[in-house]
C-alpha cells in the first residue's frame, strides 16, 4: 500500500511544526526521517479505528521530496495518513528544511472478522525510490470482554470528575451490545449518603429513565447525574454505576472530587451594628469572620470603606487561614478626624480574597471630645453673660 506525499514547503493547516536546526526537541537525520514512538498496540474490540502518532522531519537545510509507503497491512484493514486536526486524508505535503511535522496513521478494520494480528511497516522513500527510513508497529486485536454471551461492554467516558459542591456531576456511559439479540438492561448506582442520583439519555430529551434497551450490534449512551448535598465536605467520593438483567451484571467505578464551596459570614459578636466614637480618638469595635462554606479559606484581606480622613486599622491585619466551621475575631480601631462634625456616619468592613467578598456595615455616631464640650459651654456662658449685661444697660436707660 503506497501513500505519496511531497516534503517541501507545507500547505497543510493544523499541523505541528518544530524547527530543529539548532538542536530542538527532535533530532532529525541529515535528510528525511520518520519517527513512530509506539511499536506495539492491542486494538480493543469495542474500538472502530486506531490512530498512531507519526512524526516526519527534515534535517537538511533544503526542502525535500519523498514518498510514504505502508507494508504489511492486510486487505481487510484500511490505512490513511491524517493531520492532527482535519477530517481528510493526506496525499501530498511539503516540508522546509530543519522542520518536523506530526501526523496520525489511522488503521481501520473492516468488521470484527478482520485480521487479528499483523506488523505494519512504514517506509520513507525518496522520489527515485530510495529507502530513507523505516518504522514498524505490531497491531493485535484484543479478546472480547466478558458479558452476556461474552459480548456486552459498558464503559465510562470519564471515570473521575472534579468540582465544587454546588455542581452536578454527569458521567456518560456507553453500552455496546455485540450479541445477536436486543437487550434490555436496568440502571442503578451505589452512592454516598444524601447524594442524589438520576439517569438520563446522553443524547436527546433529558428525561429520567431507569432502564435502557440496546439493539443488536448497537450502542446506547446514558448519563448518570450525581448531585452532592449542600453540606458535603471537600474530598474524594467513590461510586458504582450498575447495569444488568437476569443474565448480565456490570459495575463501573467512578469518582467525584469535591473542592468545596467557599463561603464566609462577617458579623459582630453581639450582633450590634452601631459604634459610639469621639472625634480624634480611637474606638475599638470587634467583628467575627465565620467560615460557613465547605472549603477552607486562605489569605483573607481586611479592608474598610469609610469617610475621608478616617483611620481604620485591624488586629490582626489579615486572616491567613480559616478552616471549615471555624471563627476568627478581629479588633477594629475606628478613629474619626479631630475636626469631624458630630453626627452619624456609615463605614463598611470587608473580608475578601479572589473567591469571596463579604462585609458588615456600621453606623458610627461621632461626638466631640469632652474638653471641646466644656469650651463650648464656656463660650455659651460668656455669650449669655454678655447678652445679660447688655439688657441691664439698656433697661437702665
Intertermini distance: 135 Å
- Specify the overall morphology: elongated
Q: What is the H/E string? A: EEEEEEEEEEEEEEEEEEEEEEEEEEEEH
What is the count of structural domains?
3
Number of DSSP helical runs = 1
Looking at the overall shape, the CATH architecture of the largest domain is Sandwich
Q: Reading side by side through the largest sheet, how are the strands ordered? A: 1-6-9-10-4
Q: What is the CATH topology assignment of the largest domain? A: Immunoglobulin-like
For this structure, what is the CATH class of the largest domain?
Mainly Beta
Largest sheet: 5 strands, mixed
Which structural class do the helices and strands define? mainly beta
Report the portion of residues in β strands: over 45%
Key traits:
mainly beta; disordered N terminus; Immunoglobulin-like; five-stranded mixed β-sheet; single chain; 1 helix
Summarize the helices and strands and which ones pair or pack.
Blueprint: E1 2-5, E2 17-19, E3 32-35, E4 40-43, E5 50-58, E6 66-71, E7 77-83, E8 99-109, E9 117-126, E10 131-141, E11 152-156, E12 160-163, E13 169-177, E14 183-190, E15 196-201, E16 211-214, E17 219-227, E18 235-244, E19 249-258, E20 264-267, E21 274-278, E22 283-291, E23 297-305, E24 311-315, E25 318-322, E26 327-335, E27 343-352, E28 357-367, H1 370-396
Parallel strand pairs: 4-10, 12-19, 21-28
Antiparallel strand pairs: 1-6, 2-8, 3-5, 5-8, 6-9, 7-8, 9-10, 11-13, 13-17, 14-16, 14-18, 15-17, 18-19, 20-22, 22-26, 23-25, 23-27, 24-26, 27-28
Amino acid at each position: 500500500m503506497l501513500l505519496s506525499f511531497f516534503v517541501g514547503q507545507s500547505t497543510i493547516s493544523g499541523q505541528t511544526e518544530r524547527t530543529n536546526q539548532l538542536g530542538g526537541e527532535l533530532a532529525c537525520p541529515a535528510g528525511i526521517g520518520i519517527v513512530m514512538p509506539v511499536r506495539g498496540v492491542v486494538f480493543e474490540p469495542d474500538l472502530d479505528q486506531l490512530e498512531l502518532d507519526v512524526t516526519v522531519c527534515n534535517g537538511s537545510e533544503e526542502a525535500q521530496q519523498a514518498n510514504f509507503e505502508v507494508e504489511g497491512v492486510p486487505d481487510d484493514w484500511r490505512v490513511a495518513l491524517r493531520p492532527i486536526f482535519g477530517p481528510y486524508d493526506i496525499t501530498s505535503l511539503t516540508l522546509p528544511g530543519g522542520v518536523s511535522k506530526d501526523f496520525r496513521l489511522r488503521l481501520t478494520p473492516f468488521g470484527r472478522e478482520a485480521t487479528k494480528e499483523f506488523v505494519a511497516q512504514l517506509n520513507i522513500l525518496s522520489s527515485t525510490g530510495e529507502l530513507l527510513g523505516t518504522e514498524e508497529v505490531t497491531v493485535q486485536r484484543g479478546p472480547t470482554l466478558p458479558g452476556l454471551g461474552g459480548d456486552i461492554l459498558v464503559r465510562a467516558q470519564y471515570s473521575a470528575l472534579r468540582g465544587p459542591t454546588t455542581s452536578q456531576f454527569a458521567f456518560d456511559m456507553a453500552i455496546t451490545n455485540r450479541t445477536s439479540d436486543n437487550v434490555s438492561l436496568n440502571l442503578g448506582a451505589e452512592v454516598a449518603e444524601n447524594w442524589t442520583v438520576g439517569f438520563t439519555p446522553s443524547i436527546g430529551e433529558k428525561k429520567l429513565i431507569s432502564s435502557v434497551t440496546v439493539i443488536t450490534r448497537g450502542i446506547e449512551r446514558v448519563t448518570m447525574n450525581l448531585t452532592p448535598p449542600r453540606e458535603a465536605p471537600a474530598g474524594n467520593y467513590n461510586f458504582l454505576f450498575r447495569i444488568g438483567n437476569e443474565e448480565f451484571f456490570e459495575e463501573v467505578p467512578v469518582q467525584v472530587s469535591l473542592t468545596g464551596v467557599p463561603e464566609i459570614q462577617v458579623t459582630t459578636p453581639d450582633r450590634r451594628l452601631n459604634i459610639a466614637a469621639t472625634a480624634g480618638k480611637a474606638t475599638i469595635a470587634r467583628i467575627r469572620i465565620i467560615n460557613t462554606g465547605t472549603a477552607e479559606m486562605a489569605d483573607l484581606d481586611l479592608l474598610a470603606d469609610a469617610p475621608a480622613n478616617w483611620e481604620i486599622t485591624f488586629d490582626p491585619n489579615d486572616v491567613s487561614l480559616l478552616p471549615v466551621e471555624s471563627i476568627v475575631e478581629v479588633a477594629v480601631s475606628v478613629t474619626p478626624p479631630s475636626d469631624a462634625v458630630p453626627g452619624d456616619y456609615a463605614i463598611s468592613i470587608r473580608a475578601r480574597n479572589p473567591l469571596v467578598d463579604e462585609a458588615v456595615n456600621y453606623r458610627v455616631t461621632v461626638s466631640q471630645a469632652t474638653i471641646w464640650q466644656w469650651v463650648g459651654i464656656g463660650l455659651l456662658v460668656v455669650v449669655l453673660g454678655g447678652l445679660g449685661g447688655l439688657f441691664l444697660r439698656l433697661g437702665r436707660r
